[in-house]
Amino acid sequence: MIREDIFGNYPQIAHTAYVDNTAILIGNIVVGENVYIGPNVVIRADEVDESYKVGQIIINDGVSIYDGVNINTIGSSKIEIGRNAIISIPKIKHR
Fold this sequence. Notes:
This is Carbonic anhydrase. InterPro entries: Gamma-CA, Hexapep, Trimer_LpxA-like_sf. By secondary structure, the chain is mostly beta strands. The chain is 0% helix and 36% strand. It has a single domain, classed as UDP N-Acetylglucosamine Acyltransferase, domain 1, CATH 2.160.10.10.
């Protein structure tokens, strides 16, 4: 799901990026070339601070964000993920 924030900022997604249909992206987000965003990922840049400003998330080229990762700005903070970074959460396998 791709949604705007309260100010009308939509995520900007490069044509070569893959965003799984279960991922949620909201607000002032820039997704670079050849980025992978996996299932159930939540990326939000829509929290408003006391000055009525929202933050920004920049995901540079070649980044992979795997299943279930959550990335959120706090108020008007900025998050930038460097080129070719890999972000995942640890998984525990039960037998």
